[in-house]
Each structure stands twice: as structure tokens, then as C-alpha cells.
């Protein structure tokens, strides 16, 4: 398996597509570290070592056990249904 350089010159540049907004310097919302760490240390009562050793999937599973996890992203069918109901423009979206 060949390694590739992930620092720049990604597929977006080679394909002629525009880069993602975040990659193009769009303003991003900072990650809510204070809230996440507050939940981990205060609510879940994790030690710092346990928190920093967790993967995001493990952290989410711990939140799910308490009924605090966010719902999953909508699937393709649900996304298309929402796009038809709430199109970006006033014309009905046909899915294509």
C-alpha cells in the first residue's frame, strides 16, 4: 500500500472542484472543548487520562448510555426528502 501526502494537493485540486469551505479559509466555529471536558469530567466523572485515551466513538457511546448523545445524521433517503420539502430556491427540487 503506497502512502500519499495529505498536506496539500488533494483530489479537489486535481479534479478541478472547489475546495471545501473550511479548507478555503472560511470562518469556522471553534471546537467546544470546555463543554466536552465539562461533560467528561463533571457528568461522566472520567479522569483526564481516561478522557484523553478515549476515541470520539467511545465518548459518544458513554453519552448514549446516559441518553445525552446527539442523534445520527440523516440517511440519504431522509436527506432527499428534506431537500424536496425545504429547497434552497423556490423551485421544487427533483433530486438530480
Keywords for this structure?
96 residues; 5 helices; mainly alpha
Q: Give the class from helix and strand content and strand pairing.
A: mainly alpha
Number of helices: 5
Order of helices and strands: HHHHH
Poorly predicted runs? 1-10
The gross shape turns out to be: elongated
Q: Number of DSSP strands?
A: 0
How much strand? under 5%
Biggest β-sheet description:
none
Mean pLDDT: 77
Written overview of the protein:
The chain has helices at residues 11-15, 33-43, 48-53, 56-65, 76-85. With 96 residues, it is an all-alpha fold. The chain contains 5 helices and no strands. The two termini are 36 Å apart.
What layout of secondary structure does this protein have?
Layout: H1 11-15, H2 33-43, H3 48-53, H4 56-65, H5 76-85
